[in-house]
Design goal:
This protein has 257 residues and is an alpha/beta fold. The protein has helices spanning 20-34, 50-57, 85-90, 101-107, 111-123, 136-140, 144-155, 185-202, 205-210, 221-228, 245-253, and strands spanning 9-13, 40-44, 65-68, 95-98, 127-132, 167-171, 213-215, 235-238.
């Protein structure tokens, strides 16, 4: 399967941003700007605005889908402050993030917890965007490939090849997230090529050719075309630029093959 045969994917991770009015206004602008794109577009608002964002999307005939930034992998029960997959589905979410660098390195989530979340979400019928990527000190020590391999093998441990159609990978070099620094297109392509090769070694050549691998790390309208033009980069997981509908729309437009 060639790059042109893999449907581009752009995710907008709003992180801990917006308020009620702002979230509704933003999703309205995003659907107006990007709602008819041929790319797969998913937005990940804060938990408390999932209902409002979903309501603002309904009835607009948009292709944009609703996702969630995090969840607890266990069923509903005595877990104060946590959000379950069934709650997310009840709010209309169909996609979730796992392994985001801020969950790994700020919140302290382990590889084993990320794996438990990934498997629970897949078992619940949700799409999973599994994030992997190295810290600056790991990159400088020449450990990029080893870190990506460890995180990918751990994240997909116990995931069957038949489930991979619901998995999207996102390579996010941690040193480039929210810093304004971006891996060169060549560096990003090199990492994506090796990740795709790793998927092949773990599963099959067919699985690797079908797997969508996104780049995340200060993607902007000005660099999206070059990044997305690389043969193994199938879109992006966007942070700051997803909070501006025009910037986000320009990034979505950049997925055109």
């Amino acid at each position: 399967m060639s790059t042109a045969d893999r449907k581009p994917f752009v995710g907008g991770n709003w992180k801990m941003n917006t308020n009620s009015a702002g979230a509704s206004a933003l999703i309205g602008a995003v659907t107006d700007r990007s709602g008819s794109s041929d790319a797969e577009v998913v937005v990940y608002p804060p938990f408390v605005y999932l209902r409002e964002v979903g309501a603002a999307m309904s009835g607009k005939g948009t292709n944009v889908r609703l996702g969630a930034q995090d969840f607890r992998h266990e069923p509903d029960g005595a877990m104060t402050g946590c959000i379950s997959l069934s709650m997310l589905k009840d709010c209309g979410a169909t996609s979730v993030l796992t392994g985001h660098s801020e969950r790994r390195h700020v919140i302290g989530e382990s590889d084993s917890l990320i794996n438990a979340k990934t498997k629970a979400a897949l078992d619940a019928g949700m799409q999973v965007v599994l994030c992997i990527g190295e810290l600056l000190e790991e990159r400088e020590a020449g450990q990029t490939d080893a870190v990506n391999e460890r995180q990918l093998r751990a994240g997909l441990d116990g995931v069957a090849e038949s489930q991979l159609g619901q998995v999207v990978l996102a390579y996010e070099p941690v040193w480039a997230i929210g810093t304004g620094k971006t891996a060169t297109s060549g560096d990003a392509q090199d990492a994506h090529t090796k990740i795709r090769g790793l998927v092949e070694s773990m599963y099959s050549a067919d699985a690797a050719s079908k797997m969508r691998i996104l780049y995340g790390g200060s993607v902007k309208p000005g660099n999206a075309v070059e990044l997305f033009g690389m043969p193994d980069i199938d879109g992006g997981l966007i942070g700051g630029a997803s909070l501006n509908a025009d910037d986000f729309g320009a990034i979505v437009d950049a997925t055109g093959r």
